[in-house]
Design a protein that fits this description.
The chain has 358 residues and is of the alpha+beta class. It starts with 9 loop residues before the first strand and ends in an 8-residue tail after the last helix. Strands 2, 3, 4, 5, 6 and 9 form a 6-stranded mixed sheet that branches. Strands 17, 18, 19, 20, 21 and 22 form a 6-stranded mixed sheet that branches. Strands 10, 11, 12, 13 and 16 form a 5-stranded antiparallel sheet that branches. It has 5 helices and 22 strands. It is found in: Membrane.
Amino acid sequence: MKTKASSLSLPCPGYTDARLANGTDSCSGRVELKYLSEWGTVCDASWDMNASSVLCHQLNCGRAVAVVGAEWFGEGSGSIWPDVFVCEGNETGLSECGITWWSRAACSHRQDAGVICSGSFFPLDNGTVRLSGRSRCEGEVEVLFSQRWRRVLLDSWNRSEASVVCRQLACGSAVGFSGSAETEGDGCVSGFRCSGHETHLGNCSTPQMLNCSSSLHVTIVCSGHQPVRLVGSGGDCAGRLEVSHNGSWGTVCDDSWDREDAQVVCRQLQCGTALRAEVPASFHPGDVPIWLSEVGCAGDETSLWECPSAGWGHHDCSHKEDVWVMCSGKVGDGCDDSWDKKDAQVVCRQLDCGSLWM
């Protein structure tokens, strides 16, 4: 078999210069090569990732992230060089690659090749971000970056960036973030640097685009997605506390549970204030996962997800320790004119819920 290096290719000394045109910086754009004294474009049928990597290295732009078509950086004008570059990918410049006349194709400027190098800094289009997953407030982070939706790499992501995304999407605060499985793609984004106080991801430092296959992608959960509910009492404002995680409901262990924690739950459910409630005889333990334990709210939080805990699924509890919460909203929609502690005590006794906890 003939080797491409010997029989199919020759050195290409005729190309004297190279550039990336019409990009947002010198490290992205339409591939243009200078042959003797004339600039021309390269047909995308004659250009591959190896040649792109060599060109990026030659331009001091890092490594190639993606090879794209004319829809990215527009159509060029003038000559179209049809030569097929034969690069291994580790050359320091295109002059070290060979060229071949095999596989030449008739091209127009609609097929001009473009390259994005890792050293390129693309503007984040209007700072647009979305979460691709179960709901608007949970899922894999995607940003509109250079006119396409791009996944975000986990390697430089932290709680500050997650907080900004949740705030921008009106999804409350960041509950947590993790890495999703590796998948292929034509370019991912990395390098966001947020303080955590920005209102918009576009106000953070400018990221760069990298190869998708080298890292996990960011998945975040915002408090706006994480519902809580009280079940088992026949009403919405009293019952066994359950929280949703990864699409399934689970209970909360009563280790370290106190009035401050209950106050936050009642506030989040818009059920008034927490009442001290002894677990009624009719209480039924859950048969779902135990999601939370060691919850430690200060009492002034607006959501349970702002409180520290042992983490999802970390506990040494049984369902006999499931949290039961009663809120003052259980009383109903009666007018609170002249309502006082004695009235509340009567209601608690009537409901077989122990004494008032206020």
